[in-house]
Amino acid sequence: MKVLIREDREKLGREAAAHGASLIRTALRVRGEAAIIVATGASQFATLEALVGSADLDWSRVTVFHLDEYLGLPITHPASFRLYLWDRFLRQLPVPVRAFYAIDGNADPLAETERLGRALAEHRIDVAFVGIGENAHLAFNDPPADFDTDRAFMVVALDEACRQQQLGEGWFATLDDVPRRAITMSVPAIMGSEHIICTVPDERKAQAVAAAVEGPVTEAVPASILQLHPDCQLYLDQPAASRLTGAQAG
Ligand SMILES: O=P(O)(O)OC[C@H]1O[C@](O)(CO)[C@@H](O)[C@@H]1O
């Protein structure tokens, strides 16, 4: 895992997006198509904004997979990840993407995980854009995460720390409003991506970042698995990096 520390979230997002865009460009040149995974949440604001500004990318040849979604939340709810991706990413692009595999959190959950798993199995993922939660989750894989599942998408329960984070970010009015279950891409499925770009701004992530980067690889710290990926770049702002010893920083 390569750690890159930048002074603020805008710079971090711009650099992460530029790196991602160059990987997508390479895939388009070499394979004629590309497939990516996109995440949501406050950690992805700057990255997605910069990514949609990559005007030269031929998005019509890019397939997009959706990382995680709440179960049972209507698409019209302000916290819906599908709404987020439509608003901040898909509708901002100059042309429609080749395909968008949205997670339908209102469909039959098991059938939905199987449908998405079949679709993912047919694609090579060039770039996964992800974040890390305050509880060190990767997608909605809260601790202890399953590092060995053979499922690509799973129904998971959200822990209290995860639900508190969503409340704290202002997506919901009360903790009771935060759904208790979600569909998430699994840890092995994310790790199967050729390249991972993980963007993590904010001081409230500092402890999770330190554990993920400097601690042991353990299911108790889901994002620690990124240490084992052959090409993962972790973009931090200074507050998010504030608890690192500095040994890994580039
Ligand atoms: O951007 P946030 O809200 O800090 O969340 C970080 C990660 O957690 C998820 O939002 C799930 O909560 C992922 O989609 C994202 O990568």
Give an overview of the whole structure.
With 250 residues, this protein is α/β, with parallel strands linked by helices. It has a single domain, classed as Rossmann fold (3-Layer(aba) Sandwich), CATH 3.40.50.1360. The protein is 30% helix and 19% strand. The protein has 7 helices and 10 strands. The strands form 2 sheets. Strands 1-10-9-6-2-3-5 form a 7-stranded parallel β-sheet, with helices on both faces. Strands 4-8-7 form a 3-stranded antiparallel β-sheet. Helix 1 packs across helix 2. It is globular. The mean pLDDT is 97. The structure holds 6-O-phosphono-beta-D-fructofuranose. 6-O-phosphono-beta-D-fructofuranose (F6P) binds next to loops. The site of 6-O-phosphono-beta-D-fructofuranose (F6P) has 16 residues, from loops. Keywords: Hydrolase. Its EC number is 3.5.99.6. One of its GO terms (biological process) is N-acetylglucosamine catabolic process. InterPro entries: Glc/Gal-6P_isomerase, Glucosamine6P_isomerase, NagB/RpiA_transferase-like. This is Glucosamine-6-phosphate deaminase 1.
Please tell me the overall pLDDT: 97
Largest sheet, described in full? 7 strands, parallel
Instruction: Assess the beta-strand content as a share of residues.
Output: 15-25%
Query: Given the structure, what is the number of helices?
Result: 7
- Terminal CA distance reads 11 Å
Tell me what the CATH architecture is: 3-Layer(aba) Sandwich
What percent of residues adopt helix (DSSP H or I)?
A: 25-40%
What is the general shape? globular
Identify the strand order in the major beta sheet.
1-10-9-6-2-3-5
> What is the count of structural domains?
1
InterPro entries: Glc/Gal-6P_isomerase, Glucosamine6P_isomerase, NagB/RpiA_transferase-like
Protein name: Glucosamine-6-phosphate deaminase 1
GO biological process, one term: glucosamine catabolic process
Enzyme class: hydrolase
